Amino acid sequence: MGQVTNKLVSSFSTAILWFACGLSGASCNGSHSPVLSQAAANAMNITVTIPRGAVGKGPAAFGTNPLRVPVGSTVTWINGDTMAHTATANSGSFDTGVIAPGASATTPPLNVPGNLPYYCRIHGQASMTGVLQILPKHFGPPLAHARWP
């Protein structure tokens, strides 16, 4: 009886997986995970406005910190300050280059879940830092616009 029950549970689980894949439009041929497809569907462009007077604010310099970002998303920094800034990952995985006042720069898609610390290369880690929390799937609404109060 145990083998029959296990086989029924396995068949039922497979049927639910195929049904869920059909509803989500995800490819379920073994090469793509429905979970990864869902995460990609949650990807978005998050906007961070660097405020006037950001230099010297440390972890508050870039606004919301840490900033939660669904995997696959991009982050656009808009420089609202009167001084040039950068957003540079400590790991080197992204560097916006110099963002002039009034200009913006966008990261490539952030595809690796985990914490991604960054800083302003011009003003240094003691002056301007932040952390992007790259979430493996959507864990609630990220902040679409991060602003320093």
Task: Please tell me about this protein's structure.
The chain has 149 residues and is an alpha/beta fold. The chain is built from two helices and eight strands, in the order ααββββββββ. The strands form two sheets. It has a four-stranded mixed β-sheet, with no helix packed on it. It starts with a helix and ends with a strand.
The CATH homologous superfamily of the largest domain is called Cupredoxins -  blue copper proteins
Span between N and C termini? 64 Å
Count of alpha/pi helices:
2
CATH fold-level topology of the largest domain = Immunoglobulin-like
Percentage of residues in helical conformation? 10-25%
Rg result = 20 Å
**Biggest sheet: strands, sense, closure?**
4 strands, mixed
Number of E-state strands: 8
What fraction of residues sit in β-strands? 15-25%
For the record, the CATH architecture of the largest domain stands as Sandwich
Name the poorly predicted regions. 1-40
Query: Widest sheet: strand order?
Result: 5-3-1-8
What is the domain tally? Answer: 2
The CATH class assignment of the largest domain is Mainly Beta
Mean pLDDT, to the nearest integer, reads 75
Shape: globular
SSE topology string: HHEEEEEEEE
Structural class: alpha/beta
Structural features:
2 domains, 4-stranded mixed sheet, alpha/beta, Immunoglobulin-like, globular, 2 helices
